[in-house]
Specification:
heterodimer, A: 228 residues, Rossmann fold, 6-stranded parallel β-sheet, 4-stranded mixed β-sheet, globular, B: 490 residues, alpha/beta, Fumarate Reductase Iron-sulfur Protein, Chain B, domain 2, 21 helices, 48% helix, 11% strand
């Protein structure tokens, strides 16, 4: 086993040796222009109608998004999705906002079982067999159409991953212009949850003859309902 | 691939095959074979052309791209200059969050750490998401060999990597591992696994792969991922995938092992937004890869999923040799693949011709640096030095300059071949003496006569000069030298 102190000391001495012998050659900054065209249009930073930008980006990636005015409309969206997919099991985060959404009873009435992410004997069994995963999100990023989902009690990572359909209900106040701003917020608050993931559209692969394939491992059917 | 320190002894060198045309490592032979493979050629051309166009379009949507590149370069420069400090900080932060950290000098230590971990846990199924670092040390093969008694089943889960693994093949592109295979070959490979003939159409093959790999994701005892960026400040590792396999491998199994080259550390969380903005765009033209996954330690109190154990392996394997040297910038690479896509050599030969984990211009640079100059002697010459790689690099690595420096080093170390050294010495003397220069022109014009056709020397030059014309035509010397034309008033 490599000794940590030795390992670090070795790296330090390499850096110092080169410098003290004057061998350390400070590298030079790139001097070749990087961008393809110098006359490219200066775009304005992401601003204006963030929800519209978000929904546009998400659609372009092959996801589905809708902005609704009320919680009731969001509930109807999830309900009709469960019906359309003929889902037998929907798994959802244990999260106050989703309690308020009140989908459990109507979805069950429509014939879809609902599992809540708490006290599950085997989370793999539940998330692995559910057709729909329902979550919220920390943030929705307009620039890229990304959802930012985080781990925590009640927030199963698998819920966003294993079911072939992922639907997130997100309040419109959770919109952020850019990925950088989302990262800056986590940096400012100091300390990240054990897991933060930017989901940018449905799972995709181009590995077989460069044909675009959707839903390879993660969900191929991604829905975001913006409320407000 | 052996991972020990490069052998420095020159005595072991096979001197029968020295010089530019060296066949010791066989780039030229492999490249020639690649050029004859029509599908490979067409597929690589199509992929690289598409990638270059997507990248260009993505960068045009990013007005601050030049500033980001400059910033990325500066961040890497600062990181390398203080790498000892940032590695300590990263390790400390991971441990503070309940993760375990292991420093590995070489591949052997990584293999043993993972093997012993699997033994302790009584693990059987290991899922992996795409990781160049573990490819570099051939983790899968060596685990199976050194820890055969554990009966580990190690499964690559990136679709392309999985198919390559099943075919007993190696990835040929950092981003598109099986760009060299067609759907019929893929159907053959997967039919072998299915135990029935699968039709060679993309949708059926995908459905089969998804179903089969899903079982593995759920059954895995250990998940192994690579690391795109390790944030020293917060102890966070960032792994990006498009399929979601990286996120699955790090979320579902009870143990997550992340294997990271020591050069992948970045100082601050905010630095991450610089790199995520250029990685996807340079790689596939995506504004952001589909799953940009940030893991900070194991699952926390009250969580039902996520790994109970999180291990970060910080691997050197020859990297620290480059610190503070003129080759340090090779460590700035973020493995986006942009330099492969623009390279006129890669576009002709594909990745396997390089005979190394890393192909294309960055492979031609880091393979000799990590494995030893003798081991990969051909690779610095697998370039036209056109500089397209340098221009494409999102962190501003002067790749073609590094290739030139590597060639230089071969001459210094006597690896370039005696003939070449003598020839260049002669050239130097001739250029220094007006009389010799004049005579050399006359001799050259006479000597070339039997070789010239259509103003070119297209035939192979004899003897030691054959290396110059084996793969290219030389323009013939003009009938009258410029000096005579000048005297005659042109």
């Amino acid at each position: 086993m490599a000794d940590r102190a030795e390992f670090i000391k070795d790296i330090r001495s390499r850096l110092q040796n080169h410098r003290s012998r004057g061998e350390y050659r400070p590298t030079h900054a790139p001097d070749v222009p990087w961008t393809p065209s110098a006359e490219r249009r200066r775009e304005s930073p992401v601003s204006g109608d963030l929800p519209a930008r978000f929904l546009g980006e998400l659609e372009a990636l092959g996801g589905h998004g809708r902005r609704v005015a009320s919680i009731e409309e969001a509930r109807d969206y999830v309900l009709s999705l469960a019906r359309e997919r003929g889902a037998e099991l929907l798994v959802r985060w244990d999260e106050e906002e989703l309690e308020e959404l009140g989908v459990d009873a109507p979805v069950r009435e429509a014939g879809t079982e609902v599992s809540v992410w708490r006290d599950l004997p085997d989370f793999r069994e539940v998330a692995g067999s559910a057709e729909i995963g329902l979550t919220t999100a920390d943030w929705a990023v307009a620039e890229t159409g990304s959802l930012v989902v985080t781990s925590g009690p009640g927030h199963g990572r698998s819920v966003t991953l294993l079911p072939p359909t992922h639907v997130a209900v997100v309040r419109v106040e959770k919109m952020l212009p850019t990925v950088a701003e989302a990262i800056a917020l986590y940096a400012k608050n100091g300390g990240l949850p054990a897991n933060v993931c930017f989901h940018t559209g449905p799972s995709r692969s181009g590995d077989i003859e460069q044909a675009l394939a959707i839903g390879v491992h993660g969900p191929g059917d991604v829905h975001v309902v913006l409320v407000g | 691939m052996e991972t020990g320190k490069p052998a420095r002894s020159r005595d072991t060198l096979d001197r029968r095959h020295e010089g530019i045309e060296s066949k010791v490592e066989g780039f030229n032979d492999r490249a020639r074979r690649a050029l004859e493979d029509e599908f490979l050629h067409e597929s690589v051309a199509r992929f690289t052309k598409k990638s270059v166009a997507s990248r260009q379009a993505a960068l045009e949507r990013l007005p601050e791209a030049p500033e980001l590149r400059e910033t990325a370069y500066r961040i890497k420069q600062e990181t390398m200059a203080n790498l000892d400090r940032y590695l300590e900080q990263l390790a400390g932060a991971v441990e503070e969050r309940g993760g375990k950290v292991f420093f590995a000098s070489d591949g052997e230590e990584v293999v043993n750490y993972v093997g012993e971990l699997a033994r302790r846990r009584g693990s059987k199924v290991v899922t992996k998401s795409k990781s160049m670092a573990t490819e570099e040390i051939e983790l899968n093969r060596r685990l199976e060999e050194s820890y055969g008694e554990l009966g580990l089943e190690i499964i690559e889960t990136d679709l392309g990597e999985w198919i390559a693994q099943l075919a007993g093949d190696h990835p040929s592109h950092i981003v598109a591992p099986i760009v060299h295979m067609n759907r019929h070959q893929i159907a053959d490979v997967l039919s072998g696994v299915a135990g029935e003939a699968l039709p060679p159409n993309v949708e059926d093959l995908l459905q089969f792969a998804r179903k089969r790999l899903r079982e593995k994701f759920l059954a895995a005892d250990i998940g192994i991922t690579g690391v795109n960026f390790g944030v020293a400040e917060t102890g966070t590792i960032c792994t990006v995938t498009n399929e979601g396999n990286g996120r699955l491998v790090s979320s579902v199994p009870p143990v997550h092992v992340a294997v990271m080259g020591i050069e992948k550390v970045i100082p601050k969380l905010e630095d991450l937004s610089v790199f995520t903005r250029i990685l996807g765009r340079s790689s596939t033209g995506q504004d952001l890869s589909v799953y940009t996954n940030l893991v900070t330690g194991p699952r926390q109190e009250g969580e039902l999923d996520g790994p109970e154990e999180f291990h970060l392996i910080l691997m050197d394997n020859g990297r620290s040799d480059l610190l503070g040297t003129e080759f340090e910038e090779a460590l700035y690479c973020i493995r986006c693949g942009a330099c492969l896509n623009v390279c006129p050599v890669y576009r002709q030969t594909g990745g396997h011709a390089y005979g190394s984990t890393y192909s294309g211009p960055i492979g031609a640079v880091i393979t000799p640096l990590l494995k030893g100059n003798e081991e990969a002697k051909d690779l610095p010459h697998a370039s036209s030095l056109c500089g397209a790689c340098t221009e494409a690099c999102p962190v501003g690595i002067p790749l073609h300059e590094l290739l030139l420096k590597l060639r230089n080093r071969q001459v210094d170390e006597g690896l370039a071949g005696k003939g070449q050294s003598v020839a260049f010495k002669g050239f130097e003397n001739t250029m220094k003496s007006p009389a010799l220069y004049k005579i050399s022109g006359k001799v050259g014009r006479m000597a070339q006569k039997p070789l010239v056709k259509d103003g070119k020397i297209g035939r192979k030059l004899p003897g030691p000069l054959a290396g110059w014309t084996g793969t290219r035509d030389l323009p013939a010397l003009a009938k009258k030298p410029f000096r005579e034309l000048w005297r005659e008033g042109i």
